[in-house]
Structures are given as structure tokens and as C-alpha cells.
Here is the input.
Amino acid sequence: MMNGHCECGRVQFEVDGEIDDFSHCHCSQCRRLHGAAYATFAGVLRKDFRYVSGEDQVKTYASSEKYFRSFCSICGSSILAAPELEPDHYYVSMSMIEGNPPHPPAYHVYVGSTATWHEITDDLPQYDTLPNESD
Here is the structure.
């Protein structure tokens, strides 16, 4: 069981399942939303995700043609991304997860959009877009 919460603590959730995907996204949207060089996401099954409290504080919007994003309307914490083409998955912001849960090997996505002031220095796989899109 994984637990998570937003910065103000009003939105709390749990995931009763495993992380099946683990990525570092370098797209400009993730950088803006997270205020960082990249955002790390844990792929989980939607059926395993449940709000414990504060669901009424969660706001969702279409951030692109492919994704809906959810955030806390009080503190602005980015909670998750929900891909239209993967109706069984959520991509939960790892910044929301408590502790250090086990996860599959990580990889970098949208490195074609990496901030000019950031250098990727690890040996993890890198994709210009997503692994399943043409690179």
C-alpha cells in the first residue's frame, strides 16, 4: 500500500497495488507544473488508486489532447496525469508519494524538450518523446 498527499494535506490518497511504470518527464509542461527540471511519475492501475480525503478539492483539466491532469485546488500540488489512450492507468506524481516504494527501472521521456540549463547525467534510457512513439 502506498500513501500520498498534497502539500497542504487536504488531498490524500492511497494506491493498493504496484508501480508498473516509472518515468522522468522533461516536457515544458511538466517543468512548469512542478517547478523543476523534470517530473517523476509512477504508473499505477486506476482501479488501485483511491482518494482517502479531499477529493472535493481536486480539480482536473485537459492539459493536452492526450492527457487530463489533476491538482489540489488549495495548494496547487500536481497529483496525477490521466492519459486518454490508457484508460486503465494513472501516472501519479512521485512528489506526492510518501516513502520510497519499490518500482521498475526508470527512464527519461521528452528529452527533446529538456531545459537548456539542465543536464541528464545518469545512464537511464532516454526518449525524445514517449517510448511507444517514434523517436
Q: What stands out?
A: Residues 68 and 102 are 26 Å apart (CA to CA). The mean pLDDT is 94. The domain at 2-7+17-113 is CATH 2.170.150.70 (Metal Binding Protein, Guanine Nucleotide Exchange Factor; Chain A).
